[in-house]
Automatic annotation (TrEMBL):
Protein location: Cytoplasm
Organism of this sequence: Schizopora paradoxa
GO BP term, pick one: positive regulation of phosphatidylinositol 3-kinase/protein kinase B signal transduction
Protein name (Swiss-Prot/TrEMBL): Protein LST8 homolog
GO cellular component: cytoplasm; TORC1 complex; TORC2 complex
Length: 326
């Protein structure tokens, strides 16, 4: 376990500032939490601003927090006590549903219900590139090679985009027009997992050794939940997959050597839909956000809640955690 883990600390007298844990809610608030104590250390209140907080992302150096808020993205300085963003990116015409930082922190990618994916330059605050996805975007992730994007959408497509050019390299539709809700790619670039509105997950192996760009090979599919799936996320060590659902649970799947996914345990405790999740850097803990207004910290080995974060007044729909090196 890393020295700055989210693991509870019995004798610590102050917050471990190297752990950044944030939640966003329909109450228009963004809350920073002391991971081990469960205390809210900072609240960014936006009561006068329209639109709920949809997604959150922490920059690799832990300096910035990007918050997708209705049709725009606000970028906040994590070390600051100010509620004012240092940057605001406007240009989407629909709800922003995805936000992610480039590993060097130089640019930000966003996806929206307006059917576009946009690249924003954090150095000059300008839009760098537009991609026309052709359908409302539900999720976007950056390939570990930092040269491609993977998106999924309401039309049931998973697309691979080349970041050096405005071109779609691959278009997959594993279940016809059933909307794909979430995509996640392994930290080593070895596989891609997508989950759809009917609770089914699809897995592809990514081969990089045969072409300039990854080639996707369908490996398996399985029924993760029997209700709406909201998020799927591979652990940093690529040993587990977490799936969140409208059935109020999070299911943990262990990943075998032959890419077989086995149901390991079910995390139960949330009283309403579970919308989002985030792994700790060592894959030993998972944070979840739910419509029951609460976020939880789970210990993966036991499947038990070890901390609860209470303070939001409406649904907690997104969370972000960074406890690795900055």
């Amino acid at each position: 376990m890393p020295p700055h883990s989210v693991a509870p600390k019995a004798n610590s007298a102050r917050q471990d500032l190297s752990v950044v844990l944030v939640t966003g809610s329909y109450d228009h608030e963004i809350r920073f939490w002391e991971a081990w104590s469960g205390i809210c250390s900072r609240t960014i209140s936006r009561q006068g601003d329209s639109g709920q907080v949809n997604r959150l992302a922490i920059s690799p150096d832990k300096r910035l927090l990007a918050a997708a808020i209705h049709k725009k993205v606000n970028v906040y300085e994590i070390s600051s006590s100010s509620d004012a963003p240092i940057l605001t990116f406007e240009g989407h015409k629909g709800n922003v549903t995805a936000v992610s930082f480039h590993f060097e922190g130089k640019w930000l990618v966003t996806g929206s219900e307006d059917g576009t994916i946009k690249i924003w330059d954090l150095r000059n605050g300008q839009k760098h590139r537009d991609y026309d996805n052709g359908a409302p975007v539900n999720d976007v992730c950056i390939h570990p090679n930092q040269g491609e994007l993977i998106s999924c959408d309401q039309a049931g497509s998973i697309k691979q985009w080349d970041l050096s050019e405005n071109v779609c390299l691959l278009d997959l539709a594993p279940a016809g027009d059933v909307p794909i809700r979430s995509v996640t790619i392994a930290s080593d670039g070895s596989c891609l997992v997508a989950g759809n509105n009917k609770g089914k997950c699809y897995v592809w192996k990514i081969n990089d050794d045969t072409s300039e760009f990854p080639r996707f090979q369908a490996i398996t599919k399985f029924q993760a939940h029997y209700k709406y799936l909201t998020r799927c996320l591979l652990s940093p060590d690529v040993k587990y997959l977490a799936t969140c659902s409208a059935d109020r649970t999070v299911r943990i799947w262990s990943i075998g050597r032959n890419w077989d996914f086995k149901h390991e345990k079910t995390l139960e405790g949330h009283q309403r839909w579970v919308w989002d999740c985030a792994f700790s850097a060592d894959s030993a803990y998972l944070v979840t956000a739910s419509s029951d207004h609460i976020a939880r910290l789970w210990e993966m080995s036991t499947g038990e809640t070890v901390r609860q974060y209470s303070g939001h007044h409406k649904a907690a729909v997104c969370c972000a955690l960074h406890d690795g090196p900055g």
